Amino acid sequence: MDKRHFIFDIDGTLINTEKAIIKGLQELLLEVKGVPYEPEQLYFCLGIPGPITLKQLGVEGDLTAVLKKWDAYYCKHGGDVTIYPDIPEVLKKLKENGISLGVITSKNQEEYDYDMIRLGLADYFSITVTATDTSEHKPDPAPMLFYLEKAGILPEQAVYIGDSIYDMKCAEGAGVPRALALWGCKNPEEITADYRLSRPIDILGLV
Fold it and tell me: What's the rounded Cα separation, in Å, for the pair 149 and 130?
């Protein structure tokens, strides 16, 4: 498959942030709502921007301040964040094959910097689109359309690799081929994709 740009989601695709996100959100909700939540009640938030999550959970007031609290709780559990096996090696080999690497994420720029720079992954990517860059977010195609314009490429010159239905719908809406990262996916049987990847190393089969 002749692709010039491999575009990645971050959470659940490049790095495993699930424990830190869910633990932080549980602690936040206990503080601001006084309600204990089970992890299963919060999995829906994986892959969508924080403000949308808070609104769906009925959190009111100054959401900017609440998000800062959530970030603090997340950072408290930063030791739980890990890079998925073989990801650095895969990214290195893709670049050696002349593939341009990019990111489209629901993280804002500050959250992106915290994880990607700290874990040593940021330098692999030439183009990044965060929630800070567009007014509409996944599953809307706006972030992907923004990326295509920024890169100056056609949809068929890219592939988007992500773990959630939000990722796949974002790519589909922009006409970009979709590769589902099964290693971080919660409900793969409910998600349609052009390619289904069992392990990070399988990404190299798309070259």
Answer: 15
Residues labelled catalytic: 9
Q: How many separate domains does the chain show?
A: 2
Pairing of β 195-197 and β 178-181: parallel
Do 97 and 67 share a structural domain?
no
Q: How many C-beta atoms surround the C-beta of residue 61 within 10 A?
A: 9
Report the distance separating Cα 106 and Cα 50, nearest Å. Answer: 8
Q: Cα 66 to chain center, whole Å?
A: 21
Which pLDDT does position 186 carry in this prediction? 87
pLDDT score of 3: 65
CA-wise closest residue to 139 among 111, 122, 160: 160
Place of tokens 């100054």: 62
The terminus-to-terminus CA distance of the chain in angstroms comes to: 6
Q: What is the mean pLDDT of each run of 10 residues along the chain (207 residues)?
A: 84 96 97 95 90 93 93 94 97 96 95 95 97 94 98 96 96 98 94 98 96
What gap in Å lies between CA 180 and CA 198, rounded to an integer? 9
β-bridge partners, 6: 101, 159
Claim to verify: residue 60 and residue 160 sit in the same structural domain: no
The residue among 29, 170, 150, 33 whose CA lies nearest residue 106 is 170
